Amino acid sequence: MKKWLGALFALVLVIGVLAACGPDDEPEENANNSDEGTTESTDKPEKLIVWEDQDKGAALEDAAAKFEEEHGIKIEYQEYNITEMQENMALDGNTENAPDVVTMSHDGVGPSVVKGYIAPIEVSDEVLSQYTSSSVEAFEYEGKLYGLPKATETPVFIYNKELLPEVPETMEELYELTKEATNGDEYGFLAIWDDFYHAHGIFHGFGSYVFGGDNDDPSDIGLNNDQAVEALEYIHKWYDEGLFPSGIIGETSNDQMNGLFKQGKAIAVQNGPWAFKDYQDAGIDIGIAPMPKLENGQPVGTFMGVKGWFVTNFKENQEWAQKFVEFVANEENSKTRFDLTGEIPPLVSLLEDEEWVSQNEGAAAVMEQSRDAVAMPSIPEMAEVWDPLKTAVQTVATGKAEPKEALDEAVELIKQNIEMNHGGAN
Amino acid sequence: MSTKQSKIFRLTATYFIIAIMAVVIIYPLVWVFGASLTPGTSISSFSIIPDNPTWNHYKELFNPEESLYLTWYWNTIKVSVLSMLASVITISLMAYSFSRYKFVGRKNGLVTFLILQMIPNFAALIAIFVLANVTGLINTHLGLILIYIGGAIPMNTWLMKGYLDTIPKELDESARMDGAGHFRIFWQIIMPLAKPMIAVVAVFSFITPFTDFILAKVLLRQPEQYTLAVGLYELVSRQYGSEFTLFAAGSIMIAVPIAILFLSLQKYFVSGLTAGGIKG
Amino acid sequence: MDNVYQSNHRKIATVLSIIPGVGQIYNKQYLKGFIFLVFAASFLIAFWDFIDLGMWGIVTLGEQLPRDNSIFLLVYGIISIFLIAIAAIFMFINLRDAYKNGQKRDMGLQLNTIRGQYQNLIDSGFPYLMLSPGFFLLLFVVILPIIFVLLLAFTNYDLYHNWPAQLTDWVGLENFKKLFTMEVWRDTFFSVFAWTIIWTLVATSLQIALGVFLAILVNQKELKGKAIIRTLLILPWAVPAFVTILIFSGMFNESFGAINTTILAAFGIDPIPWMTDAMWTRIALIMIQTWLGFPFIFVMVTGVLQAIPNELYEAATVDGASALQKFRQITFPLVMFSIAPILITQYTFNFNNFNVIFLFNSGGPSIPGQNAGGTDILISWIYNLTMTTQQYGMASVITMIMSAVVITIAIWQFRRTKSFQEEDMM
């Protein structure tokens, strides 16, 4: 027994001594978060690691080659699903695989800044003037700029030219057309409004809003005001009369909507630019236009997402990383990107180029719609909005709750979750 | 005569119930095969016999230009075979020790691990990530294999120990009389007798890498390194643009070989599991 | 004094062995001493810095950013403790060896030759030798995660306390307090817990009942084609569950899945909201788990039934027992008695059955008033807390609570099994 006590004591002592010192005594261990060690940040790194969106790497190769030629820095890129960037940074950030540059949607800016993943950048006004001001603003967080735009996207009106020769002016007309077209397994206009990303256009069009202020005040939530209730009643109308099939709710609604449209069983859908190619490949002759106006004369204020390039905090090559960001997002490379992947760059020069606009119906429609669109809030609290709103729309759509009570409950839940998950802030 | 009638009635009822079970079991499997032949990416137009069936999804999977499926398949086979071999060896050795030797921790050691393993470790995935990173095993198949082996140990050792306990100890003793060493007894006497149980352990540890999509996703950082489960799960879990039909084709090519392997070894399952799990 | 001993070698050797190997060399066991010395030296050289960093890290969780990643340091700390423990065991063996051999010398006994030492090691160390690779893996794969979760429950690791923006800190019992005092946490916890229990009991009991029923059915002597029937009934087990669950998820889709469009339609039943109504999702999940889980029980019971000696039935027949009586008096009790030990493992398995819940509908549909989905069980909720909302601290607290439940049941169970009792007697 005594022997064990002695051993235990010795162990505790050793641990205690070890715990008392630490990296302060041994500065060489400080480098555990950077693989560069003593290298000065102004020194040229051998390579930069870039995280690109899935299936978009082709557009990066050309720019990467040119950058390497010019500066002698190799660009290594890795493709990840853009929605998983933050998850991956959480893991890889502290390892050798940490990226220098990532691409993200602008709604990831708030969380990424809070978590310290991305660094503010300083670029000249000349560079910024290439882009539409709304797209640059989407990358500002607490007064600092964090990235440069790569592409914008927002849901637009996509229709089957064979089934719908002319784009209706208003949602009212569209509603009537849909009523006529709905028959058995054939449908009119379809939208996955049970997903708040797609439903926001309606909510905003009726005068509701997500957060107060500049969409950045989480203490003011406008999703259960009278206008929001009206909006949800409007959405309910579409479900209630069987214009949207009941499968267009829940996890696979997007697949189901696409499936119907691609078989020519729906005259039109509301969807984003990522779907254009898929529809065309399915042999549908599609036309693309901004969303029709609502009855009250307001446009459908869809959510706009701006994808951008960001410099991370993980490496010490930030200066060079920023150079690469400026380079890859410049006019020439953005245009090449559009040609290769169809990602629509928010370049002022393109908007003003009438020839381009007439040749690229889809991109032009997205840009047109973007004028009425609202940039998604980029504060971390936004993460708590999606699910409750989805529930609210779904319970109303399936006739299980009244709009008012569903929205009140949703907002209550959003507030609770904000307190729960973000209350610890500061 | 009434007993004969009741017997006929009983058997008819039995066949009827089994027929219903057969439909319930086979229907989903036929359905997914149908889905794999459906053109397009979604199952919205789907009927169990597609209107214009196509092998395109299979072709796409087998085309390295279009999909990493073959890479994933190769990765999975590699991980599965290696973790199976290593698990069988480690588990046999451990089970033999627990069954035949006295040592510190014999009494409660195994049960403790068995119980500890029931603790869910999602919150600790990040710890495994850090461990792999620190040991340089991140993004390698070796790291994943080691974790699969570790995970397979408690339950399988428990089952195998139960099985080895049913092999009479007199066999060891007479061999020892004849001058056989520890290892020879293990290798030449015990192992051949434990074949059914080895088959069970082998199949279990072979299948794990085919079905794990969580650990592998955390440890393997690049699509080229993924195993099938991770890759296939990505296909259906994407919020926009999931490809159910492609997934269906990919699943068929996992499910068929595994089911065949499993069924061909089923006689071992009955003898191995009942001896290891019940009598143990 | 110790008149048995003629000298004081044992004490001198032990003291000298504080530097491992020196005592052995003093005992003139040069090779062994040399091996010990080299081993100890290489251990120190290889791990000293790491242990130093780890012990400092686990106590402080880091002091300055971005150098210190608290979570990495926490893991380093746990690994360091493992290393110290391994070193302590080695030290103990080393000291004891020096003492034992010194004692032999004191008593004037001949020490083992090198060959003798080797023989000795192989003989008494054989089980340890065989166990060590497995044990080593278990240490890192099973024990490390558990200690990590245990410690994490006392930290504030979440979205806002996370590298590189912030350090994570020890917060004591704060998380436990939050779980039981904050309304939304408490409500969610108890409602998820309740459903977890119901799920476990109902799904497991059904799969056991079906498995036992079918096994007895198929075991009837007169039945033809047993081999084929058995193969068929094992099929759900043979196909990886991961695949089947995703298939079912497609089949249960509300407007396009086979269940609603083909099967229910054939009986003239209206489509059922499998995915959007929590009640129906739960029913679907229980049915799916029954489908997935019965073959295992079926195989087990078949094994037991085949082992029941025929004489029992023959004797019963002689005594004039009816088929039903035979079943009630012989078959059923024997089966239940034999498979009782594995039944509990089936319940604990379903208690932790993440795959079916997560893959079928991601724990959804979401329901108002709680921050977990309507079919989330504790384990899938924990997954969401870590992967989606990064509430690691809270997730760990919940993990600890549910582990306590599972472990209690498991211990109670194992104490009753035969092999445990057999070990008890040793």
UniProtKB/TrEMBL annotation, chain A:
One of its GO terms (molecular function) is carbohydrate transmembrane transporter activity. Keywords: Cell membrane, Lipoprotein, Membrane, Signal, Sugar transport, Transport. GO terms for biological process: maltodextrin transmembrane transport; maltose transport. SUPFAM superfamilies: Periplasmic binding protein-like II. GO terms for cellular component: ATP-binding cassette (ABC) transporter complex, substrate-binding subunit-containing. It is found in: Cell membrane. InterPro entries: Maltose/Cyclodextrin-bd, SBP. Residues 22-47 are annotated as: Disordered. Residues 1-19 form the signal peptide. The keyword Membrane applies. It is a lipid-anchor. It holds the Pfam family SBP_bac_8. Residues 30-40 have a biased composition (Polar residues). PANTHER family: MALTOSE-BINDING PERIPLASMIC PROTEIN, MALTOSE_MALTODEXTRIN-BINDING PERIPLASMIC PROTEIN. Belongs to the bacterial solute-binding protein 1 family. This is Maltodextrin-binding protein.
Automatic annotation (TrEMBL), chain B:
InterPro entries: BP-dep_ABC_trans_perm, MetI-like, MetI-like_sf. This is Carbohydrate ABC transporter membrane protein 2, CUT1 family. It is a multi-pass membrane protein. It comes from Ornithinibacillus halophilus. One of its GO terms (molecular function) is ABC-type maltose transporter activity. GO terms for biological process: maltodextrin transmembrane transport. Residues 73-265 form the ABC transmembrane type-1 domain. The keyword Calcium does not apply. It comes from the Bacteria. The chain crosses the membrane at residues 12-34, 72-98, 110-132, 144-164, 185-207, 244-265. It is found in: Cell membrane. SUPFAM superfamilies: MetI-like. Keywords: Cell membrane, Membrane, Sugar transport, Transmembrane, Transmembrane helix, Transport. The keyword Transmembrane applies. GO terms for cellular component: plasma membrane.
From TrEMBL, chain C:
GO terms for biological process: maltodextrin transmembrane transport. It is a multi-pass membrane protein. Keywords: Cell membrane, Membrane, Sugar transport, Transmembrane, Transmembrane helix, Transport. The chain crosses the membrane at residues 34-51, 71-95, 135-154, 192-219, 231-252, 283-309, 330-349, 392-412. InterPro entries: MetI-like, MetI-like_sf. Residues 193-413 form the ABC transmembrane type-1 domain. CDD domains: TM_PBP2. The keyword Metal-binding does not apply. GO terms for molecular function: ABC-type maltose transporter activity. The keyword Hydrolase does not apply. Its main location: membrane. It is found in: Cell membrane. Belongs to the binding-protein-dependent transport system permease family. This is Carbohydrate ABC transporter membrane protein 1, CUT1 family.
